[in-house]
Specification:
A three-stranded parallel β-sheet has the order 1-2-3, with helices on one face. The chain is built from three helices and three strands, in the order H-E-H-E-H-E. Strand 1, helix 2 and strand 2 form a beta-alpha-beta unit. Helix 1 crosses helix 2. The protein is α/β, with parallel strands linked by helices and 108 residues long.
């Protein structure tokens, strides 16, 4: 195991200890349309460690054009159902939130 990997929990603790705002409550992951067509890595172990240091909600946001809105939401729902089944999100106090954000069709 690399030194960086061994130091990661300490780094997370150090970063989270600098957040003094009482309003900090969620982490938002944003995925874009190309992510619909390939698997993507989500660092659940890191989120688990972060959550043990400071509680937060997890939000998954799919950023797509209007044309892909329905598909984006379906893909995210399936992925979250799978992750819940695999118990990768059992450290959260409530299920993650799924949102879809529309962008201009020429960019999405």
């Amino acid at each position: 195991m690399s030194q960086a990997r061994r130091d990661a929990p300490y780094l997370i603790h150090d970063i989270f200890s600098t957040i003094k705002s009482p309003v900090f409550s969620e982490i938002i992951l944003i995925f874009q349309r190309p992510d619909l067509y390939r698997p993507y890595y989500i660092p659940f172990d890191m989120f688990r460690q972060m959550h043990s240091e400071r509680k937060f909600r997890l939000v998954f946001c799919m950023e797509v054009s209007k044309r892909y809105r329905h598909l984006g939401l379906q893909v995210m729902k399936r992925r979250m159902e799978y992750e819940v089944e695999e118990r990768r999100l059992d450290f959260l106090e409530s299920p993650p939130t799924l949102t879809v954000s529309e962008v201009n069709s020429w960019t999405g």
